[in-house]
Amino acid sequence: MQKIQTVGGRRLEGDVRLSGSKNACLAILAATVLPQKGRTVLTNVPRISDVLTLLALLRHLGIPADFTEPGVVSIDASSPTSYEAPYELIKMMRASFSVLGPLLARFGQARVALPGGCDIGARPVDYHLKGLERLGATTTVEHGFVHAVAPNGLRGAGIYLDFPSVGATTHLMSAAALADGITTISNAAEEPDVVATANILNRMGAKIRGAGTKEIVIEGVEALHGTEFRVDADRIEAGTFAVAAAITGGDLYIRDAVKEHVQPVTRKLAEAGVEVRFDDDGVRVRVPHGVALKAVNISASPHPGFPTDMQPPFAALMTLALGTSVITETVYERRFRYIDELSRMGADIKAEASAAIICGVPRLTGAPVAGSDLRATAALVLAGLAAEGRTDISGIQFLDRGYEGFETKLRAVGANIQRVDYADEIATELPLTSELSLARAAGVSA
Ligand code: EPZ
Predict the structure, then answer these.
(1) Which ligand 1 atom sits closest to the C-alpha of 129?
(2) Mean pLDDT, residues 364-373
(3) Which class does domain 22-222 fall in?
């Protein structure tokens, strides 16, 4: 077993280079099923487990897909051999579900396992299925799989999303690229990941306009071809490192950060008293000497609002800010699991309905804590960078899904952080009593 171990109290200083955007990459990789001819080469791709999972799924479909060198991925979808995506791969990573529409557009049918929920919410796919049906598909759900058929191909249609879902927007935009006729997606997500997906699709020969706004128009084409595309830097990684600078009273230059992508976060950091300066190559984030950060309120909401993925890391920062912060979550129904863990470090934080109420405290103390999903685990690492003493954070498998070399990058700018192996004490030292073994087997704490 592995965990992250930090000893807090160090100011972070120096340069951090961002990796490519996980979420843009995953939407783009699903879309690379579409080109009937030619290779697609992606650059600035992060080597993280979610990307490796999706590459494995593409290969399972008979599509050669892999890293050819660090940061560079090559995919050739000219002759896929299957339109079935197995549960073993889909359950590992929800975004894999978005191969459904492209497979349907290529084969006239597809069979993809339903993704499970996760720790932050039920995460249904009803918008995806309703949208594909609007495009002329018939979908049936049985035995945990979606079987979609469109024997006469997909046809353009008007689609309205009840919620500006990022995944549904990129998924349906990709499927509609090969539909016969015009598709409009209304109440579309406006995230940079949507814009990136539209950009690569247009380089493949698609005709998409309006990406980044609430109304996207896709004029279907006969066929798409491979292309080359560089993935933008990860805006959530940028926000995470900006908070790392803020929570340690440090001074970081975050290279490759894209200003309009990260401003929803840096604006709130500036409101709290952090100094933020953009230039053509990135952004400098520092806490002026002697400045105590102030509590600010945030409402995690669809872009251009404050990104929900930065809600847990920002909450970690607010535990040490002066005053009371109210953090509202409007995207997911249960993204506050990390609160109990921050409380163990001395934070004064409680969840009420869809908000976290945080009263700043003068210090946090290190403790063993458990990460429950990618961004919650990142939040606990950030708290560990500021807490007095040692913090052991389990859940490293979550971090590896979305941050490339997270602790290496933090150590390079002064953090006392390492990845350590450890035996699960309970399993090795104490003979498991029958109750304990039964409880552990059921995955509950005894
Ligand atoms: C993407 O997830 C991101 N993941 C998430 O990042 C991010 O939190 C989310 O967008 C919102 O920005 C990837 O891009 C791989 P949604 P996605 O569809 O597309 C509900 C991270 O930490 N919904 O915008 O799955 C859904 O339950 C991850 O990097 C439906 O009800 O998110 C949620 O409450 C976590 N029915 C809300 O909409 C649907 O058919 C937003 O979900 C689809 C979504």
Answers:
(1) 40
(2) 96
(3) alpha beta
